[in-house]
Amino acid sequence: MSRLNQTNSSFIYTSILYVAGLLLFLEWIYPVEQVTDTVYIGIFIIYTFFCFFITALRVKWWLSFLLKGFGIIFILNGIYSEHSMLSKLWYSELTSDVVFNIKAILARQWFDLSNLFRTLLFLVIIWLMSYLIYYWFVQVKRVLVFSILTFVYITLLDTFTVYSADWAIFRTFVIVFLSLGIANVLKEMQRENIQVSRLKTGPIWILPLISIVLFSSVVGYAAPKLEPQWPDPVPYLESAVNGNGFGNGKVQKVGYGENDERLGGSFVQDYTPVFKAYMKEKNYFRIESKDFYTGKGWINSEKQQFVEQDANNIEFETFHPVIETERHDVTLEFDDKARIPKLIYPYGVRQVQLPSDNIELKLDNLNGEIKTEVDNKDVYLTNYRMIYDSPTYSREMMRESGPSSNEEFVTMYTRLPATLPERVYDLAEEITSGYTNQFDKVRAIESYFSRNGFVYQISDVAVPGEEEDYVDQFLFDTKAGYCDNFSTSMVVMLRTLDIPARWVKGFTSGDIIESNINDGEYDVYEVTNANAHSWVEVYFEDVGWVPFEPTQGFNAPTNYAVETSTEDDFLDAPDVAPEVPEQDEIRGEQDKQVEDVFSPSTGDETKFSFTLIHGGILLVIIVLIASILFWKRYEIRTYFMQKKLLKHNDAQAYQDAYHYILKLLSKEGFHKEPDQTLREYALRIDDWYGTTEMGELTSHYEKLIYQRDPSNLLNEEVSNLWKNLIKRILG
């Protein structure tokens, strides 16, 4: 069989290898949709197939460049531009955007990279990978490294992100072992110069390979498996890398969310507006509370029961009628993208003026959540006005307040998990040992955090391990965190003292953007995702639920009656000034849920921490450079070897060049037998590659060695012979 026929006979196997490489690369793309904000993942998959198909055709490089480049322009235009792809405006926009982003990269302004430019980079990576996969899988048939990297990539994502790799691991296992089997058989055939017809003998080895791999995969997937024999390594790894368990493996985005079962971890700021509040006095806007602490977060202990409310008479009470109040009103206007089907209200809300009569308000009286519905379906209100009675609390009344006589009520709001470490109880007793009434004990715990080195921060925030308690970790190990850490810790310590307390979430008042509008009647505050917040409510008999603010740098807008109390002045003025966080961090306080209050938006540009982005980009650049140097190491060495061959007119340069050819041939599987002469070896090589170049170079080499005649040896013709043979060997 001729060499051409042999190439044709192995075409189907190399095609299978290339398709396997494509499928493995797709396993890198599939998780992107779940672990990032990428929306149009299908477009990237289609472009991947397009690039791999063009590469497989082996067209001229310039045609491949034009086709793949056209694909990128077509995709970018379809996603980001309203202009025609043939429009000069579109190319002007594209050029300006690319130039701007290149300047941003040179200036290390990573935050300023646009979505268009990020998409462009992603598409270019897909373009490059279509060639690299062809080189690895088809030309050199070395699939092991990329296969291992794929396994590592998938398992890391499965461990540290929300991506579930159950089926991905199964698919990867099948693809990898089929690829390894085919690649090794083809390399062995090439090394031993075995000529195999795919139609006659192919099934002899390909069918058993497929059968064994599929059988092993199915049995491995279906067979019963032991439970994990080692403890979860994630908390340990986080602790080892970051210290004290800092970091949660995934930086989350700020915003109000409903799932508080697992608290902890870092977050990034999001100043997307949620609503504007027209009001005269600052308020905390309440949404709901939760009553059961699990050791890791908060849940509601009882199923929610919603009762329809009269918008002119909201029946939810947080304080008793004896409390002095002052009537105010506030109007909320929501951003078009806001998605909260719940009433956001100040303390003491009495009436709600809704934009439509068919809107229903439904209250869960246990946690204060008020749903907004139309025909029993959630509705997102655009605006509403509320009338509320702002309470003014009496310190003396709270000091004189005794324990509640309702044992069931007290039990609900003082229960704690049995796993809570004893030292949390001891700390609460120590903090309040000098006080005899409930109010002073509450204020002592509230002010404890500002006196004992606790730090407000939103990055590198700890996540408790499986055997750790969220509050215990914060109080004794890390002493660093944000509102969830401070508020949860205060509630738990109060409960250890049998003081009823609950965890509340909502929004702070935001930032004032206009003053004295409507003849000085209102100020306008803008509330963003970054203003989502959590705080504490404590129950006092004959007073009700009173809000408290333990978080560093925050002051709850709780009104207290003017009273003279030396003891309270002591509590109000801590010995050490609180450590106030940076302004950006104060604006970013929230309860940090993965779910945003906004529906997914392709134009949303999430800001990540500088350290994460900078380190990630640097790592990618280093890996890419190292990979390219490794993949091209023979081409690079060939280039310098040829320069040396032309520059140095001596025998040593030619000997080095000839020995380099022998090394490359040995790497490709063409080993010289001990009893084989150089001429015999050269004939074997020329016969394989269909050339006479190895024989000519060997003749020159023998003349140099045995006749010691370097004349007319080191010329351009010899250099070209050497270069052409190198190209054949390297493919």
From TrEMBL:
It comes from the Bacteria. InterPro entries: Bact_TGase-like (IPR052901), Papain-like_cys_pep_sf (IPR038765), Transglutaminase-like (IPR002931). Residues 475-552 form the Transglutaminase-like domain. Keywords: Membrane, Transmembrane, Transmembrane helix. The keyword Transmembrane applies. Pfam families: Transglut_core (PF01841). The chain crosses the membrane at residues 12-32, 38-57, 62-80, 116-137, 144-163, 169-186, 206-223, 608-631. This is Transglutaminase-like domain-containing protein. The gene is yebA.
